[in-house]
Design a protein that fits this description.
- With 313 residues, the protein is an alpha/beta fold.
- The protein has 2 domains: 164 residues, 3-Layer(aba) Sandwich (Rossmann fold), CATH 3.40.50.300; 66 residues, Orthogonal Bundle (Conserved Hypothetical Protein Ylqf, Chain: A, domain 2), CATH 1.10.1580.10.
- It is 38% helix and 11% strand.
- α10 packs across α11.
- It starts with 7 loop residues before the first helix and ends in a 27-residue tail after the last helix.
- 42% of the residues are buried.
């Protein structure tokens, strides 16, 4: 399955971002904690050269907590401030102001030396579709400032929001990149809902997700659906049977079963699952990362090397 999704409005949005980024002091980048690398637009690093950076590991409550720690250390190692959060529940929101101040310490000190007082920090909020940018802004502001939705592509244009005298935010549309060089990244984005479901073969995608879960989180499917085995199609049929996803004549409705599986995965009902780890990065190698380790729940602990089995990263 070849996954590509780059609607026309994203080209326009990228051009606007390129112009507006000159106006900001800080880039606040939201990533999905379940797939922090796959959910980063590689263009942001180039566009944001020289800007202070704050990375928000959003939906961290849905990801393996040990893996969250690894990713926080990884982004800190790149010189970014990092906050683990869930913008829907407000978890981590209270840490944002401190992280913004820390990220912009040099800018604030420079202003102080020049006698510039009380100039607000201007921050651009960026991220891929459906990563939670607008929900974050509303939670941070304590009121509904932007339109939100549980699907990609809700925000269509840039919008300035003045939170207080010290901080202004620029909300931007979710932007992908024209072509996924790594189709595994495309798969992970499809799993978490950052690709328009309407263009996907959900049954085929479900078989790939089942293969991953069977290898890396073997208890997730058996606990939720009493589905066992290593053959993805058989497992999907078991899910259809247990959840009464049937067509006329008793035939399994695999599309309904696939949609149910993705609803449960995206909603955290299969447990806390991380789709990738920084195993093959410099951080993973420095900390003893090696091939052959699993990322089963609870397997990533302080002092362990980053797991690196290809099926699980």
């Amino acid at each position: 399955m070849n996954i590509q999704w780059y609607p026309g409005h994203m080209t326009k949005a990228k051009r606007a971002m390129k112009e507006d980024i000159k106006l900001v002091d800080l880039i606040i980048e939201l990533v999905d904690a379940r797939a922090p690398l796959a959910s980063r637009n590689p263009d942001i690093d180039e566009l944001g050269k020289g800007k202070a950076r704050l990375v928000l590991l959003n939906k961290s409550d849905l990801a393996d907590e040990g893996a969250n720690d690894w990713w926080a250390a990884y982004f800190s190692g790149l010189g970014c401030q990092v906050v683990k959060m869930n913008c829907r529940t407000g978890a981590g929101i209270k840490q944002i102001n401190g992280a913004v101040q820390a990220a912009c310490r040099e800018k604030l000190e420079r202003d102080r030396r020049r006698g510039i007082l009380n100039r607000p920090i201007r921050a651009m909020v960026v991220g891929i579709p459906n990563v939670g940018k607008s929900t974050f802004i509303n939670a941070f502001a304590g009121k509904a400032c932007t339109k939100t939705g549980n699907k990609p592509g809700v925000t269509k244009g840039n919008q300035w929001i003045r939170l207080n005298k010290s901080l202004e935010l620029l909300d931007t549309p979710g932007i992908l990149w024209p072509k996924f060089a790594d189709q595994e990244a495309g798969l992970r984005l499809a799993y978490i809902g950052s690709i328009n479901d309407d263009i996907l073969n959900k049954e085929e995608l479900a078989l790939k997700l089942i293969r991953f879960l069977t290898a890396c989180y073997p208890g997730a499917l058996s606990e939720r659906y009493q589905a066992e085995g290593e053959e993805p199609l058989k497992v999907l049929e078991q899910i259809a049977k247990v959840r009464a996803c049937l067509k006329k004549g008793g035939e399994y409705d695999l599309l309904r079963a696939a949609n149910l599986l993705f609803d449960d995965f995206r909603g955290g009902k299969l447990g806390r699952i991380t789709l990738e780890l920084p195993a093959h990065t410099a951080l993973g190698k420095e900390n003893g990362g090696e091939d052959g380790k699993d990322i089963n729940r609870g397997a990533v602990k302080e002092g362990d090397g980053a797991p690196g089995r290809d099926a699980c990263v």
